[in-house]
Amino acid sequence: MGINLLSISTLLFFLLIGLFVVDTDLAMQKKQEVKTLLELANHHASFAVDPVLKTEGVIDLIEEEALIRFAERMRENGSYLMEAASFIPAANSVTTDPIPFVRHYIDFRSWRQDWELHLRYDGTALALERINPGARNPDGGRLRILVTTKQGDVLQLAPKTMVGPSHIVVAYVDERPFLSTLPGHAFPVVSVEEVKR
Fold it and tell me: pTM of this prediction?
């Protein structure tokens, strides 16, 4: 009897570890797929160049058109619909919960300056709280993005160096786990795309 209970306990322990590993793997796959979707959509958005200014040699983004193009590509590639400042998933989307996002544009006058963006996620919405300018760099400014989670933790994303006017999109994925006994998946994803010439 003792051996059977021990065997069952061991089996359940390894099953729980296996479920945790599968859940972690799913979270990493979701993170990569959401990042890919953001980058594809942001690449499409970055073609919304002002044609009048371009004839004068100035590359600048039409932000309204960029947002429309971004939403189009998220719908085409991931079946997400944009609603206010969130992407609402369909049944066949990578994620199951809405993805709040923030977009910011660093224009042709400012891309050689360092910028620090501070965002806050409150459990439902992602908000850009403040933008701190830094030093000027002739080769392109460094972009630092910090996200404060609903628990108060500050996540610092990998810094990016801009090579021209840049359209920045930060999204925050906050997903329920596939089993209620496991922790949820929550992580920020960023895409920085140079405006196309």
Answer: 0.86
